[in-house]
């Protein structure tokens, strides 16, 4: 309401505060809000491509299991995604498989913190340092947690977050970049805003005391690189700021739901691999991933049963078997056995803080009913 009453809908003081607080919580000096997590990743890659002078066709390492946007933005930036298989327990990029995918054209790694589980960052950082690679974290699904005491979003050159509806905090649509690099933040802001001269990126940038107003007026409409229209509004920032203030309660509720699901589903551990938290790491549980363990159980039969009983599911971020990726890259099943297996056996259910105790009990009961009625139950 304060934003509506202020009559200021474009990026203003509320967005500046949201960006600064979100960045600080994630161990970074600078934050930038834009209109989606995909936009955040798109400009992160574009900024690094410009600053480090990458060429079209240079390669970026991307996990073989992630939401399509991670890999799409690589392609849209004229770069080539090279996939790396994932860990079978935590579903994040497998550091032991990264180095064999590095070529003289590799420029960056995009670790994706899947569903709230940060990647195993120490070996990834060591590899990046050895091979002089940049790091862009896709942390769209993971906020407020870290690996070995360090926050997601602060490990690499740029961290990218999504505040889309289903995410840890939401602004309807939206995303953020975080960075500690003062040069990159200027390029990111410009890229988000049509490639404008950095002298004028928000409407009060002409109110800087002691600055020659004509110099600003002269450069205000100057475009220095090919940019995008990826701006978010002050109202979205207000939603984000309000949720940021409630984050501890929201996150605690998720952990409580996850603990209840863990307990309720524990009797089915021969059938299902329940989520685990990597030692030394935290988990913010944007969703609750499950993998079928017993080959006699058909995932899609279980999913049909759950959906018929109002328990919504999603497959666990299949990438290499997406129709568009099969068209672009052919059949990658044999090259990425873990991702290929998870594409057939993994899925997730919700653990949203608005779930009631009855909702959680209903989910647990549905699994019980299914396994009792199935031949292996
Ligand atoms: C891993 C991952 N990366 C990127 C995105 C893209 O975020 P957005 O939907 O805000 O563009 C998502 C989103 O949904 C995601 O799950």
Small ligands present: pyridoxal-5'-phosphate
CATH topology of the largest domain: Aspartate Aminotransferase, domain 2
Mean pLDDT: 96
Strand order of the largest sheet: 1-9-8-5-4-2-3
Judged by helices, strands and strand pairing, the structural class is alpha/beta
- Could you name the ranges where pLDDT drops below 50 across 5 or more consecutive residues? none
Number of self-contained structural domains: 2
What does this protein look like?
With 377 residues, the protein is α/β, with parallel strands linked by helices. It has two domains: 244 residues, 3-Layer(aba) Sandwich (Aspartate Aminotransferase, domain 2); 127 residues, Aspartate Aminotransferase, domain 1 (Alpha-Beta Complex). The chain has 13 helices and 13 strands. The protein has a seven-stranded mixed beta sheet with strand order 1-9-8-5-4-2-3, with helices on both faces. The protein has a four-stranded antiparallel beta sheet with strand order 10-11-13-12. Helix 2 crosses helix 8, helix 3 runs parallel beside helix 4 and helix 3 crosses helix 6. The chain is globular. Pyridoxal-5'-phosphate binds next to helix 3 and helix 4.
Primary descriptors:
Aspartate Aminotransferase, domain 1; binds pyridoxal-5'-phosphate; 4-stranded antiparallel beta sheet; 377 residues; 38% helix; 13 helices; alpha/beta
């Amino acid at each position: 309401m304060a934003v509506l009453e202020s009559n200021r809908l474009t990026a203003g003081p509320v967005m500046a505060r949201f960006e600064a607080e979100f960045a600080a919580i994630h161990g970074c000096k600078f934050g930038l809000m834009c209109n989606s997590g995909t936009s955040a990743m798109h400009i992160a890659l574009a900024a690094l491509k410009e600053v480090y002078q990458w060429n079209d066709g240079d390669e970026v390492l991307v996990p073989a299991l992630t939401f399509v946007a991670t890999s799409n933005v690589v392609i849209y930036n004229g770069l080539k995604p090279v996939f790396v298989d994932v860990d079978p327990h935590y579903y994040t990029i497998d550091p032991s498989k990264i180095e064999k995918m590095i070529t003289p054209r590799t420029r960056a790694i995009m670790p994706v913190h899947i569903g709230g589980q940060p990647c195993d960052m120490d070996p990834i950082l060591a590899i990046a340092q050895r091979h002089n690679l940049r790091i862009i974290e896709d942390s769209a699904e993971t906020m407020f947690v870290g690996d070995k005491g360090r926050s997601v979003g602060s490990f690499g050159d740029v961290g990218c977050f999504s505040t889309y509806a289903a995410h840890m905090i939401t602004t309807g649509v939206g995303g953020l970049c975080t960075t500690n690099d003062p040069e990159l933040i200027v390029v990111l802001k410009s890229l988000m805003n049509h490639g404008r001269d950095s002298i004028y990126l928000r409407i009060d940038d002409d109110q800087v005391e002691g600055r020659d107003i004509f110099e600003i007026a002269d450069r205000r409409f100057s475009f220095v690189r090919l940019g995008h229209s990826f701006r978010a509004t002050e109202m979205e920032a207000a939603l984000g700021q309000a949720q940021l203030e409630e984050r501890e309660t929201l996150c605690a509720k998720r952990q409580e739901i996850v603990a209840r699901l863990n307990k309720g589903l524990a009797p089915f551990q021969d059938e299902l691999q329940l989520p685990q938290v990597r030692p030394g790491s935290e988990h913010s549980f944007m969703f609750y991933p499950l993998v079928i363990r017993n080959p006699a159980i058909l995932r899609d039969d279980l999913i049909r049963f759950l959906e018929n009983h109002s328990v919504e599911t999603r497959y666990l971020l299949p990438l290499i078997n997406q129709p568009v990726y099969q068209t672009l890259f052919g059949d990658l099943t044999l090259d990425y056995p873990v991702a290929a297996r998870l594409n057939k056996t993994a899925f997730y259910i919700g653990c949203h803080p608005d779930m009631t105790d009855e909702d959680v009990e209903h989910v647990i009961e549905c699994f019980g009913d299914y396994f009792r009625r199935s031949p292996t139950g």
